Automatic annotation (TrEMBL):
Protein name: SGNH hydrolase
Organism: Rickenella mellea
Keywords (A to Z) from UniProt: Hydrolase
Recorded GO MF terms: hydrolase activity
Keyword Magnesium: no
This protein's record includes keyword Transmembrane: no
């Protein structure tokens, strides 16, 4: 076999880099920007939880995941340098994350999150980068959304899960950090609903989503330490009630639970604007919309405002979602439906006075 000199050099350098230790980032490294909810293993709960990395000289990235990772796999959304998110299925063990074309010099921002409302656990052991890669700080956006909801916010039934859902899309539009604490089937009231042992008025304050009940390795919940949210949310958006209605929670009781929930949120978020969605309802093929809790959301908002808290706003979503915008089999928004909801919310928020950030707070410098 004839091997030309450059080929030998290439082969040699390949051998050398295989021999020279790559860069291992411990899961305790403070330069990993964790977002969403992670337990102490550390492992993710809730769709959308994940991490961000800013790396100089990045060429390769491997995630080593531990035994608390969902089996057989967890779908993870990955975005490199703010390009669209794509799915990588990861498993316990070693996972090479495809990065595409990277800048020759300069930094690379990798954003990664679990997509699913179930099978959404990644248990990070460490991250291995190429030799010469240097982890540098990720600076979070000045804007940070927390969204609270159920299946209509968690991206259930979407190919890319929460990454295609209106909360995530809205966060991206504003170049904001975003956390989605949403549980399909869950009510706001703390009742058993569609297999969830708790409602959001309880589970929102926990590290784990309601899936904990179906695991053998972590069959319990722990309080969430809200000081771990960095940055703290600047804006909150809540869309909930479909499952309270489905479980026949009376309107007066729902209102009472909702008002108490907002008051409890205020102990964490004293001055953040809170946006309360009215339901868009369940669109039917004949063009009608199945509505629930008429006037309840108005009552919640006016009750809070009457108590002197004016930093709460009703978002009337009537007409936002029609039959064409949902999957016919389950009446949940489809991919274009979620994009339409996001566009509507973006209009509401910009009209209200919120402007998208001009650039991401961690820019990509292709030198
Ligand atoms: C991820 O796994 C699911 C389930 O097996 C599969 O349907 C999907 O095509 C996979 N996606 C990718 C990007 O590998
Ligand atoms: C989790 O614990 C509860 C009792 O607290 C039990 O009913 C349930 O079956 C357990 N789940 C699993 C998957 O072991």
């Amino acid at each position: 076999m004839v091997v030309s000199f450059p080929k030998i050099a290439l082969l040699a350098s390949g051998l050398v880099s295989a021999v020279i230790a790559s860069v291992t980032i411990a899961n305790t490294n403070p330069l990993i920007h964790f977002h969403g909810r992670w337990d102490s293993s550390p492992g993710t709960w809730w769709a959308g939880s994940g991490l961000k990395l800013n790396v100089l000289g990045l060429k390769s990235l491997t995630l080593n995941l531990g035994s608390h990772t969902s089996s057989p796999l967890a779908a993870v959304g990955v975005s490199v340098n703010y390009q669209p998110f794509f799915t990588v299925n990861v498993t316990q063990g070693s996972n090479v994350i495809p990065l595409g074309n990277l800048p020759k010099i300069g930094n690379t921002v990798v954003r990664l999150n679990v997509e699913g409302w179930q099978n959404n656990r990644i248990n990070l052991q460490n991250i291995v980068l190429n030799t010469g890669a240097l982890l540098i700080p990720y600076v979070p956006s000045k804007l940070a959304f927390t969204f609270i909801g159920d299946s209509l916010s968690a991206g259930q039934f979407l190919p890319l899960g929460v990454d295609q859902a209106w909360p995530f899309l809205t966060g991206e539009f504003f170049k904001a950090e975003h956390t989605v604490i949403a549980q399909p089937g869950a009510a706001l009231s703390d009742i058993v609903s569609y297999g969830n042992q708790h409602g959001l008025s309880y589970e929102f304050f926990r590290t784990e989503d309601d899936g904990y009940y179906y695991t053998t390795d972590h069959n319990y919940t722990t309080p969430w330490d809200f000081s771990r949210d960095h940055p703290q949310p600047t804006h909150l958006v809540i869309h909930i009630g479909a499952n309270d209605n489905a479980q026949a929670v009376p309107q007066a009781s729902f209102i009472q639970t909702y008002v108490a929930f907002i008051k409890r949120l205020r102990t964490l978020y004293p001055h953040q604007p809170i946006f309360v969605f009215t339901p868009w309802g369940w669109p039917n093929s004949d063009g009608s919309i199945g509505q629930y809790y008429p006037g309840a959301y108005q009552t919640v908002v006016s009750t809070i405002q009457a108590g002197g808290d004016k930093n709460i706003f009703l978002v009337d979503t009537t007409g936002w979602v029609t039959w064409a915008d949902v999957f016919p089999t389950n009446q949940h928004p489809n991919v274009p439906g979620h994009a339409k909801i996001a566009a509507n919310l973006e209009k509401v928020l910009t009209t209200w006075g919120l402007k998208p950030q001009r650039t991401w707070a961690t820019p990509v410098l292709d030198l």
